[in-house]
Prior knowledge:
Chain A: It is a multi-pass membrane protein. The structure holds 2 protein chains of 2 kinds. Chain A is mostly helical.
Amino acid sequence: MDTGLFIQVILSGLSVGAIYALVAVGFGVVFNATGAINFVQGEYVMVGGLSAGMLYEAWDVPVLVAILVAIALTTLLGVLTEMGLLGFGRLRTPASITIATIAIAVVVKGAAMLISNRDTFALPSLLGPGSLQVLGASTSRQTLLNLLLAVLAVAALTLFFQRTKLGTTLRAAASDSETLQTFGVSYRTTARWAFAIAAAVGALAGAGLAPLTVMSFDSGTLLGLKGFAAAMLGGLGNPRGALAGGLMLGVAEAVMSGYGAAAYADVVAFVVLLAILTLRPTGMLGTSRAVRT
Amino acid sequence: MRKKIPTLLTCSALLALSACGLGSSGSDGGSDDTITIGTLFSVSGSGANLGDKMRKGAALAVKQVNADGGIDGRTIDWVFYDPAGDTSTAVQQTNRMLDSDGVELVVGGGGSSGIALAMDPITSSRGVAFIATEGARQIVEPAEDHPLTFKTTFNDTVMVEKLIEFWQANDITRVAFMPDTSSFGQSAQEELERLAPEAGIEVSTAAFDPAANDLTPQVKRLAGNDPQAYLAWTITPAGVTFLKNVRSVLGDDVMVMHGFGFVDERYMTQAGAASKGTLLVSPKLPVWDEIDKSDEQQPVMEDFAAAYADEYDGEQPNVYAGQAYDAMMVAVEALRATGGDPDGEKVADAIEALGTHVGVTGAFKFTADDHSGLSVDDVAVIRWDGSRFMPAK
């Protein structure tokens, strides 16, 4: 067996998997607060990566500044998503919110197409070019950064949901928003926080992904679906599950690319999604909480 | 209930309006002072970037022809639709163009081979000539089954022949090939695996998904065969990832190549240091100012590049804009030859009788058997030197 190839496959899987994990975390945050699946999540990744790339190219700002501004812009988009769905749209049920997010995703993608003039945008790595050599395999330095970001984001969000008042409120909102409102907590406020956090995490994923490839208005949709598969795999709403699910999905795809038919690498995510929905709908690390009606 | 009435009224008013809109969409085709040409390019959806360049190329041709007095005094009435990369939408739009817009000749097949292949039976069954700007050779081959359909792009067969010629001249016998899984990549794989062994070149292939974000497993796997050159075949941004990944895994000394779908300065710049030295098989357009002045194509390319930059705020045309411009110009030349008669068979005969049409993409020689018209002589091997394309040695 070729160890170099094996290590390469694992590194490749972790590199892409870290991005999937961040996307999956975003799905979890909104799900926890509203019970809905936010299909704008993939577009947050696109907006984060694309706007960072555009800022970097158009104004020649330092990479870090471009990334921070992009995260701020995307977070604002998250808040706007909430305002559109719950404010303007007055939606309250998870099913109606979920369906409306699909419409918002289409609008965001279309707007990004016009603003970016259909061009692709790149972003250099914060750690500079050059690659890491590991046991006969090689990977971009960005891979390391992405893994670190994914782990830190998951740790931070886990602490946030378990230890802070706002985090507890967000979880309570998912579990019984009506009772929560009788305590004087606004459903809108909790939901707005959730969308803002999800968008920020999505933008982080986009900024991590852009140096590995290039971003276009079209980059988000498939990532969103794969992040959703990762979230389902790990257990929707559980940040640690999202990390595990994302990395596993990334490695599974890389194994398919390295040893199997690469043409089917993209199918892996959806086969995983189907299998998990059939066999264990709550995911590997999900609680056995049933779907509320 | 009361509240619903205005809504209902508004809805029905809107419906009525849209119905009117559909019915009245220009049916002035065939009038004495215009010729109606219909075009589909995907200026939205995935591949929108390429579609936009194609639209600009075709629009420039229309503008030039009309400003120049049109075709025997008749101006081109240009009907444009955007199928957004979706084949079923494109089929509806093609039918609408021919049924209600009075389109007499079709130029441009949606910017994707799949769409062009779906449009061909529709235009053919109406006896309308169709000049595609898409790559797949099946759009026009075999010519006897596509008597009214032409295209102004290279067949991948021609590109593969040029590659083999280049490899043989450089003593390269082992090649790693990475096509994407689209019909563009798969068709090239078929041709390369058919033609390379006869030429004594050993090809190892690993395909990749166009949406992939990391191709290092494939690169590493192919490296096991110790190839002398790595060739990718895609039009998607994944080609940037390919460049970065090959350099990351194998260093700077290995020969890296791309097919003609990736001839794009923007992609090259975005790959940063990883793209320097990349070799590409390409039409001559990107190096028009570096080729021999005696080349008959040189002045055509120069004029096109200048007019395009003038029309679009200094933007440089790419090969996709060139193909679309050529397609429109071939249609115009043929219509001039028929005296403005758009009848499909007459136009097709005229295109086959054009002799050599020196275009931006190459010197087209359409015949009854060859509806693509380009040959190995029209292909250049070019090299990205870090800031621009140059002819490769």
